[in-house]
Specification:
The protein has helices at 7-13, 17-25, 38-45, 51-56, 71-77, 81-87, 102-111, 125-137, 141-154, 159-171, 175-188, 193-205, 209-222, 227-233. The chain is mostly helical. The two termini are 31 Å apart. Pfam families: Ank_2, TPR_2.
C-alpha cells in the first residue's frame, strides 16, 4: 500500500517542530495524502508538541489509520496520557468506547489485545473473515476492518478481504482508504469485475466521477451482465 511521504510527513519523522511550523506557514496540507496523515504520524511517534500546530492548521483528528485507529487511540496505545488529553477535546466520540473520557480511552485501549497476542489471530483467515462479515452486518465497521486486516496478514491474496475492507472504509467516510483497498483488489486480481465496482464506488465517494465511470466500464467489459455495475453507471 502506497504511503506518500510529503515534506510535512518527512519533517515529522525527523522530529523537527521548527520545520513543521514553517511548512504549515507556507501552506502545507495538514490533512495529508493517503493513509498516513501528519496527525497520525505525530501520534505514532509520540510527538506531543506537534499536535497543537497541526490541529490549529486544520488537521482532522477523526481520520483513522489503516488499522482503523484514531490518533487518540494510537496515543493511548503508546501510553501517552498527555497526548490523549490534548486530542480528547477535538476528537468525536465513538460508540465502542463506553467511558468517553481520558481515563476511559486509556483503559479501553489497554483492554484490546495486540493482533499477534489475540487468540482469534490463531483461528485462521476463514474464521477471521467470517467474524468480519458478522461485524459488518451489525454495522460495526471498525471491528470488521480489524478482523479483515488480521485475515489479510494470514492470506494477503484473498481479494474478497480487500473488497470488504473497501466498503467498510466507505461506510466510515474514508474514501481514500476505500480506494486503496479497491486498488489492491485490482492489482491482485485484475480480471475480477467486483474489484472494478469497488474502485468505481470509492471514486464516486471521492467525487472523482470520470475515474469512477472508467472503473465501472472496465468492470462491464469483464462482465457485461453485471447488474450492480450497470446500475452504478445509470
Amino acid at each position: 500500500m502506497a504511503i506518500h511521504y510529503t515534506p510535512l510527513i518527512a519533517a515529522i519523522h525527523v522530529r523537527s517542530l521548527k520545520c513543521v511550523k514553517l511548512l504549515i506557514k507556507a501552506g502545507a496540507d495538514v490533512k495529508g495524502v493517503g493513509p498516513l496523515t501528519p496527525l497520525i504520524a505525530a501520534a505514532d511517534d509520540g510527538l506531543t508538541d506537534f499536535y497543537k500546530p497541526l490541529l490549529a492548521a486544520g488537521a482532522d483528528p477523526d481520520v483513522r489509520d489503516d488499522g482503523a485507529q484514531l490518533p487518540i487511540e494510537i496515543a493511548a496505545r503508546n501510553n501517552r496520557r498527555k497526548d490523549v488529553e490534548i486530542l480528547f477535546p477535538v476528537t468525536s466520540r465513538v460508540p465502542y468506547v463506553r467511558d468517553w473520557s481520558v481515563d476511559g480511552i486509556l483503559a479501553y485501549v489497554k483492554s484490546v489485545p495486540n493482533e499477534e497476542d489475540d487468540p482469534l489471530y490463531k483461528m485462521g483467515p476463514a474464521y477471521l473473515k467470517s467474524e468480519g462479515n458478522k461485524a459488518y452486518k451489525r454495522k460495526d465497521y471498525v471491528s470488521a476492518i480489524n478482523f479483515y486486516n488480521m485475515a489479510t496478514k494470514l492470506d494477503p491474496e484473498d481479494v474478497a478481504l480487500h473488497s470488504n475492507r473497501s466498503i467498510c472504509w466507505i461506510n466510515l467516510g474514508e474514501g481514500d482508504k476505500a480506494l486503496e483497498a479497491a486498488e489492491m483488489c485490482r492489482m491482485i486480481r485484475p480480471d475480477w469485475p467486483k474489484a472494478c465496482y469497488r474502485q468505481g464506488a470509492a471514486q464516486m465517494f471521492l467525487k472523482n466521477y470520470e475515474k469512477a465511470c472508467d472503473a465501472f466500464q472496465d468492470g462491464l467489459k469483464l462482465d457485461p451482465t453485471d447488474v450492480e455495475i450497470e446500475n452504478a453507471l445509470w
